[in-house]
Amino acid sequence: MHPVSNIIKPFIDNYDYMPSNSLAADETYIIVKGRKGYVWFIMDAVSRSILDYTISDTRTFEVTPVIGLSNDDEVSERYRPFKQKIERLNRTYKATYRVTNGYDMGDGALSSLVLWVAYYNFLRPQEILKLQEEQSVS
Fold first, then answer.
1. CA neighbours within 13 Å on the CB side: how many for 138?
2. Residue 54 parent element (H or E)
3. Residue range 88-112, pLDDT digits in tens
4. Are 51 and 23 in contact, with CB atoms under 8 Å apart?
Protein backbone atom coordinates (compact mmCIF):
# COMPACT_ATOMS: atom_id res chain seq x y z
CA MET A 1 0.00 0.00 0.00
CA HIS A 2 2.82 2.44 0.84
CA PRO A 3 4.47 2.43 -2.63
CA VAL A 4 1.15 3.10 -4.37
CA SER A 5 0.15 5.88 -2.00
CA ASN A 6 3.62 7.44 -2.35
CA ILE A 7 3.18 7.53 -6.13
CA ILE A 8 -0.31 9.03 -6.21
CA LYS A 9 -0.01 11.42 -3.23
CA PRO A 10 1.76 14.17 -5.24
CA PHE A 11 -0.91 13.91 -7.93
CA ILE A 12 -3.89 14.28 -5.59
CA ASP A 13 -2.12 16.94 -3.50
CA ASN A 14 -1.19 19.11 -6.49
CA TYR A 15 -4.24 18.57 -8.70
CA ASP A 16 -6.04 21.79 -9.65
CA TYR A 17 -9.49 21.18 -8.20
CA MET A 18 -10.59 24.71 -9.13
CA PRO A 19 -12.21 25.24 -5.74
CA SER A 20 -15.23 27.43 -5.18
CA ASN A 21 -15.46 29.91 -2.33
CA SER A 22 -17.60 27.48 -0.33
CA LEU A 23 -15.32 25.37 1.85
CA ALA A 24 -16.03 23.15 4.82
CA ALA A 25 -13.59 21.59 7.29
CA ASP A 26 -14.03 19.07 10.06
CA GLU A 27 -12.33 16.22 11.84
CA THR A 28 -13.20 12.65 12.65
CA TYR A 29 -11.28 10.37 14.93
CA ILE A 30 -9.31 7.22 14.13
CA ILE A 31 -7.16 4.89 16.21
CA VAL A 32 -3.40 4.79 15.52
CA LYS A 33 -1.17 2.60 17.71
CA GLY A 34 -4.03 2.20 20.16
CA ARG A 35 -4.45 5.96 20.67
CA LYS A 36 -7.01 8.41 19.33
CA GLY A 37 -5.91 10.44 16.32
CA TYR A 38 -7.82 12.79 14.07
CA VAL A 39 -8.33 12.90 10.32
CA TRP A 40 -8.99 16.43 9.09
CA PHE A 41 -10.72 17.11 5.80
CA ILE A 42 -11.17 20.37 3.93
CA MET A 43 -13.69 19.98 1.16
CA ASP A 44 -15.20 22.14 -1.52
CA ALA A 45 -18.87 22.24 -0.58
CA VAL A 46 -19.92 22.70 -4.22
CA SER A 47 -17.93 19.98 -6.00
CA ARG A 48 -17.51 17.93 -2.81
CA SER A 49 -13.87 17.32 -3.68
CA ILE A 50 -11.46 16.88 -0.81
CA LEU A 51 -9.00 19.74 -1.18
CA ASP A 52 -6.77 18.90 1.76
CA TYR A 53 -6.47 16.23 4.43
CA THR A 54 -4.15 15.40 7.29
CA ILE A 55 -3.82 13.20 10.33
CA SER A 56 -2.96 14.73 13.69
CA ASP A 57 -2.93 13.73 17.32
CA THR A 58 -4.85 16.83 18.47
CA ARG A 59 -8.06 18.64 17.63
CA THR A 60 -6.51 22.11 17.64
CA PHE A 61 -7.78 23.67 14.42
CA GLU A 62 -9.68 26.92 13.99
CA VAL A 63 -13.19 26.26 12.68
CA THR A 64 -16.59 27.89 12.99
CA PRO A 65 -18.48 25.47 15.22
CA VAL A 66 -21.95 24.39 14.18
CA ILE A 67 -23.34 22.61 17.21
CA GLY A 68 -26.40 20.43 17.53
CA LEU A 69 -29.02 19.38 15.04
CA SER A 70 -31.11 22.53 14.85
CA ASN A 71 -30.44 26.10 13.80
CA ASP A 72 -30.72 27.73 17.21
CA ASP A 73 -28.36 30.58 16.38
CA GLU A 74 -27.23 32.64 13.39
CA VAL A 75 -23.96 30.72 12.97
CA SER A 76 -25.71 27.35 12.89
CA GLU A 77 -28.30 28.61 10.42
CA ARG A 78 -25.68 30.04 8.08
CA TYR A 79 -23.28 27.09 8.13
CA ARG A 80 -25.67 24.12 8.54
CA PRO A 81 -25.51 23.11 4.83
CA PHE A 82 -21.70 22.98 5.02
CA LYS A 83 -21.82 20.98 8.26
CA GLN A 84 -24.18 18.45 6.71
CA LYS A 85 -21.90 17.93 3.70
CA ILE A 86 -18.69 17.53 5.73
CA GLU A 87 -20.41 15.20 8.21
CA ARG A 88 -21.61 13.07 5.27
CA LEU A 89 -18.00 12.95 4.07
CA ASN A 90 -16.85 11.90 7.56
CA ARG A 91 -19.47 9.11 7.68
CA THR A 92 -18.39 7.87 4.24
CA TYR A 93 -14.75 7.76 5.36
CA LYS A 94 -15.59 6.09 8.68
CA ALA A 95 -17.56 3.36 6.90
CA THR A 96 -14.38 2.27 5.13
CA TYR A 97 -12.10 2.93 8.11
CA ARG A 98 -14.07 0.83 10.63
CA VAL A 99 -13.05 -2.47 9.01
CA THR A 100 -9.38 -1.72 9.82
CA ASN A 101 -9.87 -1.78 13.62
CA GLY A 102 -7.27 0.99 13.78
CA TYR A 103 -3.72 1.22 12.50
CA ASP A 104 -0.47 -0.12 13.95
CA MET A 105 1.58 2.65 12.36
CA GLY A 106 1.04 6.30 11.45
CA ASP A 107 2.43 5.58 7.98
CA GLY A 108 -0.24 2.94 7.44
CA ALA A 109 -2.95 5.38 8.46
CA LEU A 110 -1.64 8.05 6.09
CA SER A 111 -1.19 5.60 3.20
CA SER A 112 -4.74 4.37 3.65
CA LEU A 113 -6.04 7.94 3.81
CA VAL A 114 -4.20 8.93 0.62
CA LEU A 115 -5.70 5.99 -1.27
CA TRP A 116 -9.16 6.76 0.10
CA VAL A 117 -8.93 10.43 -0.95
CA ALA A 118 -7.81 9.34 -4.44
CA TYR A 119 -10.82 7.02 -4.62
CA TYR A 120 -13.21 9.65 -3.28
CA ASN A 121 -12.04 12.45 -5.58
CA PHE A 122 -11.43 10.52 -8.79
CA LEU A 123 -13.00 7.06 -8.84
CA ARG A 124 -16.33 7.16 -7.04
CA PRO A 125 -19.48 8.07 -8.94
CA GLN A 126 -19.99 11.79 -8.50
CA GLU A 127 -23.44 13.33 -8.68
CA ILE A 128 -22.07 16.77 -9.64
CA LEU A 129 -20.45 15.29 -12.76
CA LYS A 130 -23.68 13.56 -13.73
CA LEU A 131 -25.56 16.85 -13.40
CA GLN A 132 -22.98 18.67 -15.51
CA GLU A 133 -23.18 16.00 -18.21
CA GLU A 134 -26.98 16.18 -18.25
CA GLN A 135 -26.89 19.97 -18.56
CA SER A 136 -24.39 19.88 -21.43
CA VAL A 137 -26.55 17.38 -23.35
CA SER A 138 -29.74 19.45 -22.90
1. 6
2. strand 50-56
3. 899 999 888 877 777 777 788 899 9
4. yes
